Amino acid sequence: MSGKVGAGKPAADAAIKRPVDGGQRMSDISQSIRSRSLSVSPRTAGEMLEYGKTKIKDLIKKEELESYVDGGARRIVTQSIYDYVERKRQATKAPARRGRSPRKTDKA
């Protein structure tokens, strides 16, 4: 044996680089979790909403997100995440336009 790390591998295998997470992005993992879970961890909720842990804690405190403690772990109800997004979506909808506003003309 030569004592080198990976000495028994063919050169072609050594050149292949694989992502650490097995090829799945974190958002893909979150999507598969949320599609089958009734509740998620604050970390997963943060990934779903693309928020940091401080923002998630604030939303829990303001009761924007429904949560509970199971053992020592906080869980956020998945439906409350969907409801929060829907409330934000409704609040930012543009008002309906009723046509073009009349032009101002200078008549002297």
Task: Please explain how this structure is put together.
By secondary structure, the protein is mainly alpha-helical. The chain has a domain at 20-88: Arc Repressor Mutant, subunit A (Orthogonal Bundle). The protein is built from five helices and three strands; from the N terminus they run ααβααββα. It is elongated and about 75 Å long. The termini are far apart. Mean pLDDT is 77; it is low at 9-21.
Based on the structure given, which CATH architecture of the domain at 20-88 is correct?
A: Orthogonal Bundle
Q: Over all CA atoms, what is the radius of gyration? A: 25 Å
Mean pLDDT: 77
CATH class of the domain at 20-88: Mainly Alpha
Total strands? 3
CATH names the topology of the domain at 20-88 as: Arc Repressor Mutant, subunit A
Main sheet properties: 3 strands, antiparallel
The parts where pLDDT drops under 50 for at least 5 residues are 9-21
Summarize the structure.
With 108 residues, this protein is mainly alpha-helical. The chain has a domain at 20-88: Arc Repressor Mutant, subunit A, CATH 1.10.10. The protein has helices at 11-15, 26-34, 42-49, 53-61, 78-91; strands spanning 39-40, 67-70, 73-77.
Comma- or semicolon-separated keywords:
108 residues; mainly alpha; 42% helix; Arc Repressor Mutant, subunit A; 5 helices; 3 strands
Secondary structure elements and pairings:
Blueprint (H helix, E strand, L loop, with lengths): L10 H5 L10 H9 L4 E2 L1 H8 L3 H9 L5 E4 L2 E5 H14 L17
Helix pairs in contact: 2-3, 3-4
